[in-house]
């Protein structure tokens, strides 16, 4: 799975900009998911800024466009620098997912930090419309994809 994004990044190295929407769509599809987000860390503000999304209701976009570290699944994954997973976001009462997250109608979901050599570059979140526990291999693959995205961001000085 980790090689899912490699062709996109390799093809984009000589382009003025990566099509992050297409990259996210490919990742979502590769994991059999329907919904996803890609946030990049704005180091000047410390906020996660939405770069691409799929399957989100339009009314949620303002709430997801900028996420503070420590808030919601993406913010907690970024703060902890570890994946945050929920088998069923709809029935979760841990407080990790923000109340509006239930409006996505997704169930099995995961947010992983985009990390390279311990440095945070953002988060990647994907979800299924059914309860689901991601396997250890899937989590490792998502972390590998996150490292690839991070490497591209760092190597190409991606600006937010």
Terminal residue distance: 27 Å
Tell me the overall shape.
globular
- Percentage beta strand: 15-25%
Using the coordinates shown, work out and report the CATH topology.
Beta-Lactamase
Structural class: alpha+beta
Name of the CATH architecture: 2-Layer Sandwich
Mean pLDDT: 82
Q: Note the total helix count.
A: 5
Protein name: Putative GAF sensor protein
Domain GAF: 15-159
InterPro entries: GAF, GAF-like_dom_sf
Organism: Hymenobacter roseosalivarius DSM 11622
Describe the fold and architecture:
The protein has 160 residues and is of the alpha+beta class. The protein has a single domain (2-155), classed as 2-Layer Sandwich (Beta-Lactamase). It has 5 helices and 6 strands, in the order H-H-E-E-H-E-H-E-E-E-H. It has helices at 6-12, 20-30, 61-64, 72-80, 136-155; strands spanning 35-42, 47-54, 66-68, 84-86, 109-116, 119-127. It has a 6-stranded antiparallel beta sheet. It is globular. It comes from Hymenobacter roseosalivarius DSM 11622. InterPro entries: GAF (IPR003018), GAF-like_dom_sf (IPR029016). Residues 15-159 form the GAF domain. This is Putative GAF sensor protein.
